[in-house]
Specification:
6 helices, five-stranded antiparallel β-sheet, mainly beta, about 600 residues
Length: about 600
């Protein structure tokens, strides 16, 4: 079942496409005279190479959905879509979208959208002539208001207004039936229309879905004393957190997005649901095209090895295999009874291949696996719960090692560090025998680290570790509150020398959700911004806390000096994320 869709674009849009539907061809009459004039104009203003092979463009429209596709020219060719509003109003109205190596694109556009379109191919910077030029118009006419049955379309009327969503100017949700037929299209790029009505935008779509259901939850007691039953539903998948990185080696920053299911392990009506959760893609890449848009990176993952039952927490990026491409580390946080038993590997280590794709290298971690019996099969998996799986070069050999700041695995104490043996294996301190002392930090003494960042906190040129705690930090004599910094001393992290965050805005009743790091006051040191709510009552309030780095020696709470938190227990809701973005390029 398709549940929702999201876009990464830079301006407000009138209509978002959520799904593709079954192929339907609807030919449009080519306006030869106007198209010929447009082709002549384009040949004058655009430097095409007459000897490069032009693609052949096909166009189809079903109700409000536009589909463009073109024939491949050469193996290494990329493609460019040219468009101009119809009626044609001169060369200043011609724009283009670079589409990489994609051979098709689609979109749901508002009624009365009308454009001329053509495609060219590019190889080694040489651009072909234009393909055939086509015109399309989104006009529903007599089809407007038809039911899905009358349209004979694989779509639904989600808002029950008697009009098939595919023909509806403003349906409440995406138009698609419960179907696995569309799973191949769970990410893609779509054409969208700007609010000015004269510009097409190529937007990467994260299209989440769920096709398997659980049987619900039973709570043995309630305020009235009777059991309460919640019905079953989809396991679900929803966009969660993101991080920038460079996943194709160009000069532009891309984005990796983590997604998560919304399934609660407690009070299951059917215990087997916990051990047989749906596995889906939980890691999604969007590639920056350098022209203000993002391209779907769905084709960068091959197969289903990278699918996970659960994934919760901010992804991390680092070049683990030293090929110049950022690799991806994913988390598997969350608490509750049997969460570890119900997961698979949980975490993910995704390394780049020479061909630009990514593969699941989690098996290369030297950690014992558990044999788990699922419904109809068994699997050998790590079953790790953590939100603090990070990468840092501990032994100064030029290879990023792997670190767990707080991690749980049934009946096992996980190591603080796994040393990187040229990305072929990741082994313990005892196996690697590095020429550094062993850190005295133990991941098992920390209940939950909510968020971890690797930065040079003290300005000495090496990387330190910042940890934001969920509620209280550490345990025993190290028990604290809010967060802490582990300072890197030649690859050794001494818990006795940790730098403690100031108390949260609600003291010991603070429940942290997320943090961002950056130089807020321009002094060259990394500062910290957190977002939190109340621990009790849960899901109440949402506040921002600003912690200023005092020369790499301490953090000072300057929240009240810099902002006013406007949310109250009545208006705020926690569980949010926070990011620092330099919009105005101001420097103090």
């Amino acid at each position: 079942m398709i549940s929702s869709a999201g876009t990464i674009v830079g301006e407000r849009l009138l209509m978002l496409n959520a799904n593709q539907f079954g192929a339907t061809t609807l030919s449009l009459k080519k306006l030869s005279l106007v198209a010929g004039q447009l082709s002549l104009m384009l040949s004058v203003i655009l430097p095409f190479n007459a000897y490069a092979k032009a693609p052949s463009l096909s166009i189809a429209v079903l109700a409000t959905e536009l589909k463009l596709s073109w024939t491949p020219t050469e193996d290494l060719a990329s493609y460019r879509l040219y468009y101009a509003p119809s009626p044609y109003e001169g060369p200043d109205t011609v724009n283009f979208i670079d589409l990489g190596r994609n051979l098709s694109i689609s979109g749901l556009l508002p009624e009365n959208s009308s454009f001329f379109v053509a495609v060219s191919s590019l190889v080694d910077g040489v651009e072909s002539e234009l393909s055939n030029i086509e015109e399309f118009s989104i006009t529903l006419k007599s089809q407007k208001g038809l039911t899905c049955e009358e349209l004979s379309s694989d779509a639904i009327d989600s808002d029950s207004d008697g009009i098939c969503d595919l023909l509806d100017p403003a349906p409440e949700s995406a138009a698609i039936k419960d179907s696995t037929a569309n799973l191949a299209n769970d990410f893609a790029n779509r054409i969208l229309l700007s609010d000015s009505g004269d510009r097409l935008i190529n937007a990467a779509i994260f299209q989440n879905y769920s096709t398997e259901k659980h049987e619900g939850f039973i709570y043995a007691s309630s305020a009235g004393g009777d059991p309460v039953t919640f019905p079953g539903g989809w396991f679900g998948d929803q966009m969660h957190l993101c991080r920038p990185g460079n996943f194709n080696g160009d000069q532009y920053q891309d984005i990796v997005v983590s997604s998560m299911n919304s399934f609660d392990m407690g009070n299951l009506a059917n215990e087997a649901d916990g051990y047989n959760q749906e596995k889906l893609p939980r890691t999604h890449i969007f590639l920056n095209d350098g022209n203000g848009a993002f391209l779907s990176g769905a084709n960068l993952f091959q197969g289903t090895d990278y699918f996970r039952m659960r994934s919760y927490g901010p992804p991390q990026v680092a070049d683990i295999n030293n090929d110049g491409i950022d690799d991806i580390l994913t988390q598997n946080g969350g608490g509750g009874d049997d969460y570890d038993k119900a997961t698979d590997h949980g975490i993910g280590l995704y390394l780049s291949n020479p061909d630009g794709t990514f593969f699941d290298a989690t098996e290369r971690l030297d950690i014992a696996k558990n044999e788990i019996q699922r419904e109809g099969y068994s699997e050998s998996v790590l079953q790790i719960l953590t939100e603090s799986f990070i990468a840092i070069d501990l032994d100064s050999d030029g290879w990023k090692d792997l670190v767990f700041l707080a991690a749980y695995k049934s009946n096992t104490n996980l190591p603080f560090a796994l040393f990187n043996d040229k990305a072929e294996r990741f082994v313990t301190y005892e196996t690697w025998k590095p020429d550094i002392a062993k850190s005295n930090y133990d991941p098992s003494i920390q209940p939950i680290v909510r968020h971890t960042e690797v930065v040079d906190f003290d300005g000495d040129g090496d990387e330190d570790i910042l940890a934001l705690c969920y509620r209280e930090c550490l345990s025993g004599k190290y028990l604290g509150q809010n967060g802490f910094v582990l300072v890197n001393e030649e690859g050794v992290f001494d818990i006795e020398k940790r730098i403690i965050f100031p108390n949260g805005l609600r003291g010991t009743n603070t429940k942290n959700d997320h943090m961002a790091v950056g130089d807020i006051n321009g002094d060259g040191f990394i500062d910290v911004v957190t977002v939190s709510g109340a621990s009790d009552p849960y899901y109440v309030d949402r506040d921002i806390q600003i912690l200023i780095n005092d020369g790499g020696q301490a953090l000072v709470d300057e929240t009240d000096l810099r902002i006013e938190n406007l949310n109250t227990p009545d208006t705020g809701h926690p569980e949010g994320a926070i990011y620092l973005v330099d919009y105005d390029r101001w420097r103090p």
